[in-house]
Design brief:
Elements lengths: L7 H22 L12 H13 L2 H11 L8 H25 L9 H8 L8 H11 L1 H10 L2 H21 L13 H16 L8 H27 L5 H6 L6 H15 L7 H9 L3 H8 L8 H4 L2 H4 L5 H45 L1
Helix pairs in contact: 1-2, 1-3, 1-13, 1-14, 1-17, 2-10, 3-9, 3-12, 4-6, 6-9, 7-9, 8-9, 10-12, 14-17
C-alpha cells in the first residue's frame, strides 16, 4: 500500500509492537529478568510485569501482515526486496563491525560467517526466516481464505490452534513438536486468524474497550500465573518448564492478549495530525529496526553500550529502558530510511540501464 493509504491505527500498532520487541530484548539480553523461581524481589517482579505486557509483540506484528493478506499482491519483486533487505543488514553490519574492530567478529568461526552469508537458512534472524516461508505460502493462504466456507475455515483454525497452542499450553512437559512460536507454522496459523478477522471478524472483540480490556487482563494473567508458579518452584515443585512456557508466543494466554490489543487498535480511528503522519511514514522502516539491533554482531553488545549493567538490579531500570528503547528505535528508523534510499536509487538505475539496453537492441 502507498503511504497515503496507510491506516494510522495499524501503523501505530506496528510501531508499538517493534518498541515492545526492543523492550523484550532489553530485558532478556540486558539480563534484567531473573527466573521467578529464583527471585521475587520488587525489581524482578517489575521486569517480569513489563515482559508480560510486551510478549504480544511478535504475534501482533504477524497479525497485521496477515490482516492485509487477502488484498495484498504476491510477487517475486517483494520477495527479492525482502531477501535483499535482510542480506544488507546481515552482511553489512558484520563487515562494519569487522572494519571497526567492534565486538568479537574477528574471532568468529566458519559457522558464524555462514550465518551472515546465509541468514535465512542459518536462522541468523529467526523471525525473518519464518516470515520468508510464510510469505512463500501467501498464495496458498489467500486461496484458503477465498475458497473455504466460514465453518470450514473455523475448523481449520481450531485444529491448528489445538496443535500449535492449546495442547502445549496445558501439557506440563516439553512437547517435541513445540517450537514456542518461533517457526513459520505458527506464523501461518496467525495469518489465517488475521485473514478470518478481516473477512468475518470475531464478535468477542468487537469494541475498542473490549479488546484493550482483554489485552490488559490476559497480560496481567500471564504475570500473576507466572508469579504463582515461581513461588511454587521456590517451594520445591518442578514447575520451571510451565513457568517458561507462559512467555512463549504460541501460548494460549499470549495469543488471547495479542488478539485483544490487535482488536483494540483495529477499531481506533486516529485523527490526521502531524504526529500520525510522521508515524505512518516511519512504520515501513520498523523491520529494519529489528534487523539492525538483532544482528549477530551486535545483539548482545548494544545493551552494554547503553549501560544496562549499571541499572541492573535497581528500580532505575524502567526509566533507563524507556530511554534506551527510544534511542535504539530512532536509530533503526533513520538507518533503514537510508537503506531504503540506497535501494530506491539502485532500482531506478537498474530500470534505467535496462531501458537503455532494450532501446539499443531495437
Amino acid at each position: 500500500m502507498r503511504a497515503k493509504e496507510r491506516q494510522a491505527n495499524f501503523e501505530i500498532l506496528r510501531i508499538l509492537s517493534m518498541v515492545m520487541v526492543i523492550s523484550l530484548h532489553y530485558l532478556i539480553k540486558g539480563k534484567i529478568t531473573i527466573p521467578l523461581s529464583q527471585d521475587i524481589s520488587l525489581v524482578n517482579l517489575t521486569a517480569w510485569l513489563l515482559q508480560s505486557f510486551c510478549i504480544v509483540a511478535v504475534n501482533v506484528y504477524v497479525l497485521i501482515s496477515g490482516y492485509f493478506l487477502p488484498e495484498a499482491k504476491w510477487g517475486l519483486k517483494k520477495l527479492i526486496y525482502l531477501v535483499a533487505q535482510v542480506w544488507f543488514y546481515s552482511v553489512g553490519v558484520a563487515l562494519l563491525c569487522l572494519l571497526l574492530h567492534v565486538g568479537e567478529v574477528r574471532s568468529w568461526d566458519l559457522y558464524d560467517w555462514l550465518a551472515v552469508l546465509f541468514p535465512f537458512q542459518m536462522e541468523h534472524y529467526w523471525f525473518a526466516t519464518a516470515y520468508l516461508v510464510m510469505y512463500l505460502f501467501t498464495p496458498v493462504i489467500k486461496a484458503a481464505l477465498k475458497h473455504l466456507k466460514k465453518n470450514e475455515l473455523e475448523r481449520l483454525i481450531f485444529l491448528l490452534l489445538l496443535f500449535f497452542s492449546v495442547g502445549k499450553s496445558i501439557i506440563p512437559i516439553k512437547v517435541p513438536t513445540d517450537q514456542y512460536g518461533y517457526d513459520f507454522g505458527w506464523f501461518l496459523c496467525l495469518c489465517l486468524i488475521a485473514g478470518y478477522i478481516k473477512i468475518y471478524g470475531i464478535d468477542w472483540f468487537n469494541r475498542i474497550r473490549k479488546g484493550l480490556f482483554l489485552y490488559f487482563i490476559f497480560s496481567a494473567g500471564i504475570f500473576a500465573y507466572s508469579v504463582f508458579l515461581g513461588i511454587l518452584c521456590q517451594k520445591g515443585l518442578p514447575l520451571s518448564y510451565a513457568l517458561d512456557m507462559n512467555y512463549s508466543y504460541n501460548h494460549i494466554l499470549v495469543l488471547t492478549a495479542s488478539l485483544g490489543i490487535f482488536y483494540g487498535f483495529k477499531y481506533m480511528k486516529p485523527k490526521k495530525m502531524v504526529w500520525t503522519n510522521l508515524l505512518c511514514k516511519a512504520a515501513p522502516y520498523t523491520f529494519g529496526v529489528y534487523l539492525l539491533h538483532e544482528n549477530l554482531a551486535v545483539r548482545n553488545l548494544w545493551p552494554l553500550w547503553f549501560g544496562v549493567d549499571k541499572v541492573r538490579g535497581t528500580m532505575l531500570f524502567p526509566l533507563h529502558m524507556g530511554i534506551t528503547v527510544i534511542l535504539v528505535f530512532a536509530a533503526g528508523i533513520i538507518i533503514d530510511y537510508g537503506r531504503s534510499c540506497i535501494f530506491n536509487r539502485a532500482e531506478a538505475l537498474f530500470w534505467k540501464n535496462s531501458a537503455r539496453h532494450n532501446k539499443n537492441d531495437e
